[in-house]
Amino acid sequence: MLANKKSLLALSVASALTLTGCFSDDDNNVTVPPVEPTDPVVVAPDAPAELGLVINANVVDSVTTDVLNAKLSFLENGEEATNIVDANGNELKVVDAANGNVVFTKKADSDITEVTVSVTADDYIGKSFIIDLTAAEGVSSVAAQLALVKANGEGVTTVAETVGAVGGATSTAVEAASTGKSGAGANIPAGTQLLDAAGNAISGELALSVSGADSSSSAAAAIVPAGLNAADAASTAKSAGVANILMSDANGNKVKSFGDSEITVTMAVPATTMINGVAIQTGDTLKLKSHNEDTGVWSDEENVVTIGDLDAASNTFTGTFQTNHLTFFSSTVEIEACTSDISLNVSGDAVPAGGLYVQFASSDASANSFIAAGSTTTTLISAEKAKRFGISADATASVSIVDVNGDEWFSSDGEVAVCGAVTATLVNPVELVSEDFTVIAACGDGQTVDMSNAVVTYGLEGKAKSVAASSGGGSFALADLISQREYQITVDARTPLAGETTIGTTEILADGTAQQIDLRADCGDLTGGN
């Protein structure tokens, strides 16, 4: 009987619990209706504001112009940049560019006129570039081609060795060296201290890399970091020989100095190098400069390069010096600097809408510049920058003009004088078409966001990207497309889109037909995985 009472009690409680949620708390037996969900408030985000001058930088192979997976570090006056931002206003200090392309600008309230970009890529010689942040009135975007040379490309030799370190010092002597016109070497005694930039000891197994380049050709000039001379330098130096020495552990920690120790470095110096109008000979000394890839700054070294024996086979002398740190080194000679603007006058076919790249290459000068659509006369390098880059008054170089895909529009017949005006007759080598491309960003209820100030980049797979010019109303001009080729297009809407992004992508076939991309704007009406 007791068990039965408990069962009835349990049933009674269960019934009460089951029925409680179905009735109001009064005795009128009124059903409470469920709460109706409210529709999300749809508010279209603000249209992105107009940007200042946009820099479209592409890191490419110096020979093929194929884009490289690269790391770019932005620097101002030897420190991390504080005035460089992406299209959405995010500060850029270090960027890993999987497709070699970075689009950036400077902060609206910044008055800087240039930025140094230190660029590295696996199996290539790292290099610093100085990018001008000014442009002629009416120019909204400028392209910058950042060309890197393969570590063992033509005229360049790189050797590698493994270094063992115990207690922050080398356990045995190590030598890594190459010979010939691109020769360079490093001799590190046993017991040499190995310190990082902060002075901390580094131990374990380290990788040592030593690169040299032929200074009698364009090879060495192509790897010398920009800004060899300070703008206010009393004299102008030109590179005469190079050695790039890097050492790091498995975690990428770099050896930057040797404390109280010194190592011996060698570099090939062409026998044609002149000092005060006289060819160098054994026993002469050259000044030495070093470039810190982490700061982008050149420094004068106290030590000098002593010219050793002549290698008749390569017609080079071996230059030798001691140093207590690692970086890019260049022996130098004084020159009479070019004091004229280096300009380009073009005729023939018109410069296309996407502009063209100009490349100078010789032992005297290595430089890349850009000419905008429709240009007939362009200042490529100002007189002030010619001095900074170590371009002499009598410098000569081979000149080539190519488009974004590396197709050649002009090539000089050998080397020509470049201090002053250079002339070129352009010939278009490919059939080009243009297309209108419309970007539409819409909310769920059909409201649209003006995409006139979005950033649209496009290019062939594996090649440099171009920035499309805005025509207003969300319409953009895809210029200089090679007919019947497929192009990859990336749109940075610069406003929130579905998927917590600002980016949309698509592909088109270049056939002259207008194209469109539809983007789902995040207007506060997105839920769940939509």
In short:
It comes from Pseudoalteromonas citrea. With 530 residues, the chain is mainly beta.
Give the helix/strand layout.
Blueprint: H1 2-20, E1 54-61, E2 70-76, E3 79-80, E4 84-85, E5 94-97, E6 101-106, E7 114-120, E8 124-125, E9 127-132, E10 141-150, E11 156-166, E12 169-170, E13 174-177, E14 184-188, E15 204-213, H2 218-223, E16 236-249, E17 263-270, E18 274-275, E19 278-279, E20 285-292, E21 297-300, E22 305-311, E23 316-323, E24 328-335, E25 342-348, E26 356-361, E27 366-371, E28 377-381, H3 383-388, E29 396-402, E30 408-411, E31 416-417, E32 421-426, E33 432-442, E34 448-449, E35 455-459, E36 466-467, E37 469-472, E38 475-482, E39 486-497, E40 501-509, E41 515-520
Parallel strand pairs: 1-10, 25-32, 33-41
Antiparallel strand pairs: 1-6, 2-3, 2-5, 2-7, 4-6, 7-9, 8-10, 11-12, 11-15, 13-14, 14-17, 15-16, 16-24, 17-23, 18-19, 20-21, 20-22, 20-24, 22-23, 25-28, 26-27, 26-29, 29-30, 29-31, 33-34, 33-38, 35-36, 35-39, 37-38, 39-40
Describe what this molecule looks like in 3D.
Strands 11, 12, 13, 14, 15, 16, 17, 20, 21, 22, 23 and 24 form a 12-stranded antiparallel sheet that branches. Among the domains are: 156-335, Sandwich (Chondroitinase Ac, Chain A, domain 3), CATH 2.60.220; 337-429, Carboxypeptidase-like, regulatory domain (Immunoglobulin-like, Sandwich); 432-520, Carboxypeptidase-like, regulatory domain (Immunoglobulin-like). The protein contains 3 helices and 41 strands. By secondary structure, the chain is mostly beta strands. Helices cover 6% and strands 47% of the residues. The model is unreliable at 1-25 (pLDDT under 50).
